[in-house]
UniProtKB/TrEMBL annotation:
Pathway, per record: Cofactor biosynthesis; riboflavin biosynthesis; 5-amino-6-(D-ribitylamino)uracil from GTP: step 1/4; Cofactor biosynthesis; riboflavin biosynthesis; 2-hydroxy-3-oxobutyl phosphate from D-ribulose 5-phosphate: step 1/1
Role according to the record: Catalyzes the conversion of D-ribulose 5-phosphate to formate and 3,4-dihydroxy-2-butanone 4-phosphate.
NCBIfam families linked: ribB
One GO MF term attached to the UniProt entry: GTP binding
Enzyme class: lyase
HAMAP family: RibB (MF_00180)
Protein name: 3,4-dihydroxy-2-butanone 4-phosphate synthase
EC number: 4.1.99.12
GTP-binding is among the record's keywords: yes
Annotated family: Belongs to the DHBP synthase family. In the N-terminal section; belongs to the DHBP synthase family.
Cofactor note: Binds 2 divalent metal cations per subunit. Magnesium or manganese.
Phylogenetic classification of the source organism: Eukaryota, Metazoa, Porifera, Demospongiae, Heteroscleromorpha
Amino acid sequence: MQLASIEQGLADLKAGKFLIVVDDEDRENEGDLVMPAECVTADAVNFMVTHARGQLCMPMTSERLAELEIPMLPSRNTDAAMPTAFTMPVDYAINTSTGISAHDRALTVQALIDPASSPGDFIQPGHMFPLRADPGGVLSRPGHTEAIIDLAELAGVFPGGVVCEIMNADGSMARMPDLELFAAKHDLKIFSIAQLIAHRRITETLITRVAEANLPTKYGVARIIGYRGSIDEGEHAALVVGEWKNGDEVMVRVHSECLTGDAFGSLKCDCGEQLDMAMRMIFENGSGALVYLRQEGRGIGLHNKIKAFVRSTGAGPGHYRSQCCAGVPA
C-alpha cells in the first residue's frame, strides 16, 4: 500500500478523519491512529477504543501542561532511549460522570485545549493520559507523541491531539501488513514519521547565523561563523577560507567535536589529527570550509565518552581509532 503524501494526510486531518501514523521498524514499529484534538468527538473516541484497542493518550505541549498544572508521572526501570513522557491522567470535572465513557473522554480532550479551562476544572488522577511532547517535535524525538503535534501545527489547528496504538484482534501489535488491512477496511490513509521528518527538514530553517569574525590561525586567517541550531540548540561553527562561486567544487570537512582528541591530544582517537590535517589541506588548497559540530562524542556527551573509556579493555594508542566518539570501543 502506498503511503499518503503530507498534503493528503493533512487534508484528512483537517477534515476530521483519522490518519494512521507509523514509525520506524527499529523503534516501536507500531501504527497509531491520530487525530487533532479540535476534531475529537465521542464517536471518534469510541472508534479508537473499539477498533484500535491501544492506550488512548493526548499529546500536548509542555507550555499547555504547565498552564493546567498537570504534573509528570515519575519513571523508573526504563531502558528506553526516548521514553514516553506520561503525565498524571485527568478527567474533566464539569458535565461528566465517571470520566471513562467516550462522551466524558471527548469532553476532557476539548477542555484540555480550551483556553478558558483552569487547573481546578480537572480531576487528578483520571482516565485521559496527556503526554508531554518534545519541543523539537519529530526532529528531536521521532515518536507518535511529537508527530501529532507537528501535524496539528502544519494543519493550522491547536497543537494537541489524540493517539491510540492499533492492535490486532488477538491482542498483538499491528505491523505494516496488518495496518494496510486496517486502513483498507476503514478507508484510512497511512503516513510515516520518516516522511514528516523529511518534510520538516526540507521546509524549515533549522540553523541561524549568529556571529562572524576574522580568526588568525597557525595556518593563516579564516573567517569564523557561529551558528545556533533551533532543535539541538548547539553552538556550531564554520571556518571559511578563500572564496568560490556557484558551480565550483569546494573542499569541506565536517568535524564532530571531540574535546579529548581535539584539545587534550588523547591517544585513544585520531580526531585531533584529522582536524589538524583538514585545516592544513583547506589552507593549502586556498579555499574551503571546516564545519565544526558541537556534539561531543557524536551526541553521547563528554561524560558518557569518559565512562566508555573506563569500560574499554586496552588503553594503547589508537584503541578507539575512529570509534571513540561513538562511545563504543573498537
